[in-house]
Amino acid sequence: MAEMVNVRINGIETEVEKGTTILQLARKLNIYVPTLCAHPDLRQAGACRMCVVEVKGMRTLQSACSFPITSEMDIFTTTAKVRKVRRDILALLLKNHVGECQTCKRNGNCELQRLAAEFGLHDYLYGKRTERRYSVDDTGYAIVRDPDKCINCKRCVRTCSDIQAVGVLGTLYRGADTKVTTFMEKNIAETLCVNCGQCINRCPTGALTEKDATSAVWEALEDPNKHVVIQTAPAPRAAIGELFGLPAGTSMTKKMNTALRLMGFDRIFDTNTSADLTIMEEGTELLIKLKKVYIEGMSKDEAGLPGITSCSPGWIKWIEQFYPEYLPKLSTAKSPQQMFGALVKTYYAQKMGIDPANIVSVSLMPCTAKKFECERPEMRDSGYKDVDYVLTTRELGAMIKEAGIDLPNLPESEFDSPLGLGSGAGLIFGATGGVAEAAARTIWYIVTGENVPMKNLEVVPLRGFEGVKIATLPKIEKTAPGWEFMKGIVPKIAVAHGLANAKKLMDMLKAGELEDVFCIEVMACPGGCLGGGGQPQPTSPEIREARMKAIYEEDRHLPYRQSHENPYVHQLYEEFLGEPMGELSHKLLHTHYCRRSRRM
Fold it and tell me: Which entry of 156, 193, 203, 311 is annotated as an active-site residue?
């Protein structure tokens, strides 16, 4: 049984488990303590000192986020001394925070700005530094760093190291010269950065933002010679409402379609269509690997088992850099974004009689790494750049506001044909475990000749936020002709989200602990795409949970819930692609990955 300690906080007597921090106690009792470095996803650092409190009998104020309660004590959070010190700390942070709030991307959603308003700091008590000490680093395709807006809270450092196991960011120097930067102060493009944007999601100010594509997209929309299409991924639909004051997890799919038409997009398509294609291609590829093992007698290593998903571009760059020896196990299937881009400038262009040179292909994604992915030289199999511009959820929200569109009160409208119908399987790609679950639904059909029974359609063991999940699926009792070798097999699937968890999973694979697993899904971001680096700020486990519920709820009400049921997918193969893993589908929908030098 846990040891309990008697505590008084602001005169309130309570009992807490020994080792609980003062901040945890305050939050439990709904006592407000301001913070800047604390974040629900991160270990405590005690870096900003905004959370100082007074403890009776101690001469100095204590940091509430890092002070563990080990004995009986009196704590005070609102004394004059506490308020004055917090105000002074905030004033000093503001003094060194260079940049105009009015033009900052975080204006109106900046934690430093919010605290300044709370403390009534309408003037700079200690003056304001106006000259820049550092240059803005916008050398990469995805992330922009402005060190002059950094307040040294080190959230980005802890995110990059603890959540993502990359470790690009750290601190240099001491005292007033302390600086969050990269190894040898290199530009972000010259580091191991995987462009996931998780640092952006946890930065309290505008020191980290995404590379902006809004101006380029507006320019395309205003060009009468351009045919501008947009594909929308599932995760932004469950999150964009947050930018308009709606609760996390409010589905805005059809209202967003209307907003995009009002903005001038010529066609609004559904990325879930190509997510279904991904399942057909990736699932077929996996089954070919299984045949090589069970029929041709290859070893699992030779056949490339377990097969590993390739939908997440942050994960792809990470494995290229850190575990390149496992690249042969990666699916060659492109991500849904890139499959869609290739089809827009081939199949769609031919069907509509439009010169692909005049098509501008835009994608709405929850992910900053998608900006990097669309620039990869491998992603031009259509003969053009398959995806021209990527907008994050935040960027589209800003564009909708700029256009004066009231998103929450718009009427609903549908996606356009012929690339506007996706199944529930494609939709759940937005959540960790969703790709694996979608694949399981269709592979079960191919192998058994029957759809997954409705009671088993939702593969619950693959869902949720556990860092590494290994799910055992039902034993295959009946097989379709040609798949008899699968009879009696009990399939196992492994899932990880967040790259620190991916590292655990890859180390398990290296140690031979995944011998019975035939498929591995990895998403770079916590929670999967719904926790992507381009999603609305702030982020927390509760917000990601609400977004996940919205995705699964929408899946339950769609007419098609398995990728192979999607009639548009059948039409694509009949009219254009031929068959999964066929010559044309392999040319347009597959790619290759290679050992990457530790640069951009």
Answer: 311
**pLDDT tens for each residue of 486-517:** 999 999 999 999 999 999 999 999 999 998 99
Three-class SS state of 308? strand
Q: Choose among 240, 150, 165: nearest CA to 200.
A: 150
Catalytic residue among 111, 242, 373, 521: 373
72: how many CB neighbours lie within 10 A of its CB? 9
Whether 51 is catalytic: no
Question: What's the DSSP call for residue 246?
Answer: P
Cα separation, 493 vs 502, in Å, equals: 14
Which residues touch 557 (CB under 8 Å, ≥6 apart)? none
Based on its alpha-carbon atoms, the radius of gyration of the chain, rounded to whole angstroms, reads 25
Rounded Cα distance between 218 and 198, Å, is 26
The predicted structure's pLDDT at residue 456: 67
Active site residue 361: no
- CA distances to 242, 400, 420 from 412, in Å: 18, 15, 15
| Sole residue written with tokens 């996996």 | 286
Q: Residue 274 and residue 438: Cα distance in Å, rounded?
A: 13
Cα torsion angle, 501, 507, 513, 515, sign:
positive
Q: For the chain, which domains are there?
A: 4-78 (3.10.20.740), 92-210 (3.30.70.20), 226-273+337-409 (3.40.50.1780), 278-333+422-589 (3.40.950.10)
Is residue 529 annotated as part of the catalytic site, yes or no? yes
Amino acid (1-letter code) at residue 590: H
Distance between CA atoms of residues 463 and 497, nearest Å: 11
Q: 8 to each of 16, 22, 310, how far by Cα in Å?
A: 10, 11, 53
Cβ atoms within 10 Å, residue 29 = 12
- List strand residue ranges (DSSP E) for 12-129, in order: 12-17, 52-55, 62-63, 73-76
The CA distance from 78 to 545, in Å, is 33
Sorting pLDDT into bands at 50, 70 and 90, what band is 174?
Answer: confident
How far from each other are the two terminal CA atoms of the chain, in whole angstroms?
Answer: 51
At 7-65, the pLDDT tens digits run: 999 999 999 999 999 999 999 999 999 999 999 999 988 999 999 999 999 999 999 99
Q: Is the pLDDT of residue 455 over 80?
A: no
Is position 370 annotated as part of the catalytic site?
yes
Is 331 a known active-site residue? yes
Note if the pTM is more than 0.90: yes
Longest C-alpha distance within the chain, in Å?
80
**Closest to 510 (Cα-Cα) out of 245, 255, 319, 352:** 319
Q: One of 54, 285, 320, 521 is an active-site residue; which one?
A: 285
* Catalytic (active site) residue 575: no
Angle ∠(561,567,573) on CA atoms, nearest 5: 120
Active site residue 111: no
Q: Which of 50-64, 172-186, 353-367 has the lowest mean pLDDT?
A: 172-186
Which residue in the list 111, 210, 242, 282 is annotated as catalytic? Answer: 282
Q: Decide: 176 and 514 in contact? Cβ < 8 Å.
A: no
Q: What is the Cα 548 distance to its own chain's centre?
A: 12
Please state, in angstroms and rounded to a whole number, the distance separating the CA atoms of residues 227 and 218. 13
Which of 529, 563, 565, 585 is the catalytic position?
Answer: 529
Q: Which residues contact 451 (CB under 8 A, 6 or more apart)?
A: 441, 444, 445, 562, 565
